[in-house]
Design brief:
Layout: H1 2-33, E1 38-46, E2 60-68, E3 74-82, E4 90-95, H2 108-163
Antiparallel strand pairs: 1-2, 1-4, 2-3
Helix pairs in contact: 1-2
Length: 165
């Protein structure tokens, strides 16, 4: 158990830092690739469903929209819009350099949440792995202990039962 505790105390910071750095680097690469993305005006061709709730939240749905791509070429596709948006409404469409619909780029706060979430997940995985190893070791030790008791009883049991009849 002491060895597993030492592994936990060493593994948690190591997994936290390495996973955090890996996800941070991937997110920064993603943000660099998204620098060319921008918003352009579009028009909803087919509206989205009405919200099924009265909660004061911004619910977005996918609607069919059209926008001007590079060289003025008409592009269409599914874009995010507020629930209840009707056909003919103006929407802002995030597009890539080729004019394809992309969705909004990764924000610094979203990247920070992604990093923290994966760091916590890494700690949970390390803890789960070590708890599983501890349970397995405990099970094996119990089997060895019971086998020892069994062999000792095989030696003592017959003499004890003869003396007590």
């Amino acid at each position: 158990m002491a060895a597993l505790l030492a592994l936990f105390l060493a593994g948690v910071p190591l997994s936290w830092l390495s996973v955090g750095r890996w996800v941070q680097a991937g997110g920064l690469n993603e943000q660099r690739a998204q620098r060319a993305w921008h918003e352009i005006p579009g028009v909803v061709l087919r509206g989205g469903p009405l919200p099924h709730t009265r909660l004061p939240v911004n619910i977005t749905v996918q609607v069919l929209a059209a926008w001007a791509g590079p060289g003025g070429q008409r592009r269409t596709g599914e874009v995010a819009a507020a629930a209840g948006t009707v056909a003919g409404a103006k929407v802002q469409v995030w597009v890539g350099s080729a004019g394809q619909a992309t969705g909004p780029p990764l924000t610094p706060s979203e990247l920070a949440r992604r990093v923290v979430g994966t760091e916590l997940l890494a700690v949970a995985i390390v803890a789960t792995l070590l708890i599983s190893l501890a349970a397995l070791a405990q099970s094996q030790l119990n089997r060895l202990r019971l086998a020892g008791w069994e062999s000792q009883w095989a030696l003592v049991g017959p003499r004890w039962t003869q003396n007590h009849r």
